[in-house]
Design a protein that fits this description.
CATH topology: HIT family, subunit A
Oligomer: single chain
CATH architecture: 2-Layer Sandwich
Number of helices: 2
Radius of gyration: 14 Å
Low-confidence stretches: none
Bound molecules: adenosine monophosphate
Shape: globular
Strand order of the largest sheet: 1-2-3-5-4
Number of domains: 1
């Protein structure tokens, strides 16, 4: 299991490059602890990636001291949903924790997925 925690300048993942603004992203929200941007290959009409600026490889690496950061990321999900007008209709939040779950980018992220107004996301 990947337990390394990189500093922002050393984060080798694609999301590290986005955080350093080395590659572009379609950003919908940013604050001092989090960034949210459109997924490059959306799996739903609304597909946003929410990441902490601080590197954690995935949810399995979470420690007690990360609890406030996790709560903040969930709060950001609501802010983003409100901004994109899907808070009332509803959204799905997913994190893939590890390769066996389909995680490709080893920087903790939540996928915020939502359908168009009046439609439903397919169930699992
Ligand atoms: P996961 O499989 O959970 O690690 O999800 C990684 C997600 O990051 C996938 O949905 C990718 O489409 C998305 N992704 C990869 N590169 C980029 C990028 N440069 N900009 C936006 N999203 C990306």
């Amino acid at each position: 299991m990947e337990t390394t925690r990189y500093n922002l300048e050393d984060n080798p993942t694609i999301f590290g490059k986005i955080l350093r603004k080395e590659i572009p992203a379609n950003i919908v929200y940013e604050d001092d602890k989090a960034l949210a941007f459109w997924d490059i290959a959306p799996k739903a009409p609304v597909h946003i990636i929410i990441i902490p600026k601080q590197h954690l490889a995935c949810l399995r690496c979470m420690e007690t001291s990360d609890a406030n950061l996790m709560a903040h990321l969930l709060h950001v999900a609501n802010i983003v949903a409100e901004k994109l007008d899907v808070k009332e209709s509803g959204y799905r939040l997913i994190t893939n924790a590890g390769q066996g779950a389909g995680q490709e980018v080893p920087h903790l992220h939540f996928h915020l997925l939502a359908s168009k107004k009046g439609e439903h996301l397919p169930g699992f």
